[in-house]
């Protein structure tokens, strides 16, 4: 695992969680909750995409970064962070009923 990819996934996951919370206010967990859910979701989806081979094989094998790897990490982190934040928000809503 490349530490730079992990950092990109962490940051884009946190951003994805907070962006989705601003759009879907009913699932908002607060800034800290959105960031934590986003970070976890971002790393999970980012690592799943890496394991499935969504990143270019040469860059992943060499441990380097290229544009494709960076874009995959950003998209995977952002989407994963936003998705997990919504899932946690849904669970929170159901528990409050």
In short:
With 97 residues, this protein is an all-alpha fold. It has helices spanning 3-23, 30-51, 57-62, 67-96.
Could you explain the architecture of this structure?
This protein has one domain (3-96). The mean pLDDT is 87. It has 97 residues and is an all-alpha fold. The protein is built from 4 helices and no strands. Helix 2 (30-51) crosses helix 4.
Provide key terms for this protein.
mainly alpha, single chain, 0% strand, 97 residues, 81% helix, 4 helices
Number of domains: 1
How helical, in percent, are the residues? over 70%
Most strands sheet: none
Task: Count the E strands.
Answer: 0
Measure the end-to-end span: 41 Å
- N-to-C SSE series? HHHH
Which secondary-structure class do the elements indicate? mainly alpha
* Rg of Cα set: 14 Å
Residue stretches low in confidence (pLDDT < 50, at least 5 long) are: none
Estimate the strand proportion: under 5%
Helix count equals 4
Overall mean pLDDT: 87
Task: Label the overall shape.
Answer: elongated
Which helices and strands appear, and what pairs or packs with what?
Layout: H1 3-23, H2 30-51, H3 57-62, H4 67-96
Helix pairs in contact: 1-2, 1-4, 2-4
